[in-house]
Amino acid sequence: MTAASYAAVDWGTSSFRLWIISESGAILAERRSGEGMTTAAKTDFSAVLETHLQAVFAPPHLPVIVCGMAGARQGWVEAGYLDTPAPLSAIVQAAVTVPDANRDIRILPGLAQRSKEAPDVIRGEETQLLGAISQLGNGSHLVCMPGTHSKWVRVTGGIVDGFSTFMTGELFDVIAKHSILSHAIAGAGSFANDDPAFLDAVAKAVKNPALATNLVFTVRSGQLLHGLSADDAKARLSGTLIGLEIAGALATAKPGSGVCLVASGALAALYQSALSALNLNPVTIDADEAVRHGLAAAANAIWPA
Amino acid sequence: MTAASYAAVDWGTSSFRLWIISESGAILAERRSGEGMTTAAKTDFSAVLETHLQAVFAPPHLPVIVCGMAGARQGWVEAGYLDTPAPLSAIVQAAVTVPDANRDIRILPGLAQRSKEAPDVIRGEETQLLGAISQLGNGSHLVCMPGTHSKWVRVTGGIVDGFSTFMTGELFDVIAKHSILSHAIAGAGSFANDDPAFLDAVAKAVKNPALATNLVFTVRSGQLLHGLSADDAKARLSGTLIGLEIAGALATAKPGSGVCLVASGALAALYQSALSALNLNPVTIDADEAVRHGLAAAANAIWPA
């Protein structure tokens, strides 16, 4: 039997993921649950973690490396932020140890961009970046990490120069649920990545980002005047917000940067489609793998074999 | 005693306003209530109207001219849309008579822009425009009518060439209430029209509209990193959305158009401040007066003395 070396935890706002990693770096077990920071803050972070560790028969003294919102002020133990520009390797040195725990538990910090003009924070994605950096190599990269709050990170030779957060996923959600567009979108299923309504909206928003909130309204007026279907309405709202995000991110990029997409599943396919339609042809790195690689890099540095 | 000539009604989605107008054009009485289309559609449009008319002792056969959402499909009697380009004077000819009523009640139509590229609709603002047109005069105008759904209308010599709706007011509302920014804005009061946080956000969004959803996120990150106050957070969100709207509207304007603001109260002051800071120096027309003038123009054409 292969011995476990450490547990790796990606603890987000609304999700918890744990992997037991062997000495050779193989995944021995995996757990996923909805016990993110919001839930765990109401119960007990330690209890949530131990329950999942016991469920996979983890040894009592197995060390645990954690990234994400468990290190936020409102999380388990505050792990602060590294200020940009920051070498990704410095994340490991800034890990915080959970006090009075029965095992060695370290939480990785986030990144902060403290400029008055563009204050911004990242927590969790820095570990994905650490895991993706070996695949990126040197040179300047514009790394897209889509989600509730999409992050576009400017990385040069392993150093994070800066980053910009776009509220794309959350805005899609609140507009689709709480605005007048909810009527147009009601009952919509999922749409294809190459849905013309999606790609057309991406192209329009990239071409004229200033018209974004007008393009969003055409979801409603298109339904009134042209019988726009619920599926196409949803695709148009999504495409407009993603196009606006891409236009903004490109405006912040260093000239000559290559675009890299760090994402998984449906979101990866959607952004891949949008970016490719704009001839940006990103290098795509799986986000789940990236976070595990980042946690592994941290674990191997903190607990060398 | 001056005799009443007609009743003028501006029936919006969530508001009802009625004025009794004399033969000389003076306001004899006024009523305001929250019985907009949404409420009246659940009870009875006719009953709501008659209750307000009786409250001001309107004569039994006093005719009534109505604009706004009472003419929507989900309203009282559908008054359809005039297609752009449309002369504002044509609104009067397209008024619809409420059938089987005890008095002569006419509802004015909206305007529709049926292009596939930029479908859009207006209902209510066309009557404000009709009332504002004499003050605008000939030439090309870009008319800003701010609100839940801000309308920017391109008018040349009394003809509506086209228009664009921006969801500014509604987006402000759903983002402030339902997104993560609700924490940053909680407890905020009102902010001054010349609040630097507001004007700075307007300028930033106009300069780089593509960064809109990133600028919106700095409401949150500014609070985390720089202790941005709730009042400034609210001002920044408002300024970003209004700046984005202005940038988009300017992108649709005919070169050489003068900017005109049709608005009342706090919203008028806020847009006046934003537009002036951008050196757009709008002619401002009171929206309440404009809608009464528009209803008067329709009433005088339909029921000449």
Brief overview, please?
The structure is a homodimer of 305-residue chains. Helix content of chain A is 42%, strand content 25%.
What is the secondary structure topology, with strand pairs?
The structure is a homodimer of 305-residue chains.
Chain A (H helix, E strand, L loop, with lengths): L3 E8 L4 E7 L4 E7 L3 H6 L2 H11 L8 E5 L12 E3 L2 E2 L2 H4 L2 E2 L7 E3 L2 E4 L6 E3 L2 H12 L3 E6 L4 E7 L2 E8 L1 H11 L2 H5 L10 H12 L4 H15 L3 H23 L5 E6 L1 H13 L5 E4 H16 L3
Parallel strand pairs in A: 1-4, 4-8, 5-9, 11-14, 14-15
Antiparallel strand pairs in A: 1-2, 2-3, 6-13, 7-8, 9-10, 11-12, 12-13
Helix pairs in contact in A: 4-11, 5-9, 7-9, 8-9
Question: How would you explain this protein's 3D organization?
Answer:
Chain A has 305 residues and is an alpha/beta fold. The first copy, chain A, has 2 domains: 120 residues, Nucleotidyltransferase, domain 5; 170 residues, Nucleotidyltransferase, domain 5. Helix content of chain A is 42%, strand content 25%. Chain A has 11 helices and 15 strands. Chain A has a 6-stranded mixed β-sheet with strand order 3-2-1-4-8-7, with helices on one face. In chain A, helix 5 runs antiparallel to helix 9. Chain A starts with a strand and ends with a helix. The mean pLDDT of chain A is 95. Chains A and B meet through strand 13, helix 5, helix 8 and helix 9 of A and strand 13, helix 5, helix 8 and helix 9 of B.
The biggest beta sheet of chain A is recorded as:
6 strands, mixed
Number of domains of chain A: 2
Instruction: Classify the fold: give the CATH topology of the largest domain in chain A.
Output: Nucleotidyltransferase, domain 5
Identify the CATH class of the largest domain in chain A.
Answer: Alpha Beta
Number of strands of chain A: 15
Instruction: Report the CATH superfamily of the largest domain in chain A.
Output: 2-keto-3-deoxy-galactonokinase, C-terminal domain
- Radius of gyration of chain A, CA atoms, in whole angstroms: 20 Å
Report the CATH architecture of the largest domain in chain A.
Answer: 2-Layer Sandwich
Q: Please identify the oligomeric state.
A: homodimer
Mass-distribution shape of chain A? globular
- Trace the largest sheet of chain A across and list its strands: 3-2-1-4-8-7
Low-confidence stretches of chain A: none
Judged by helices, strands and strand pairing, the structural class of chain A is alpha/beta
> Which percent range describes the beta-strand content of chain A?
15-25%
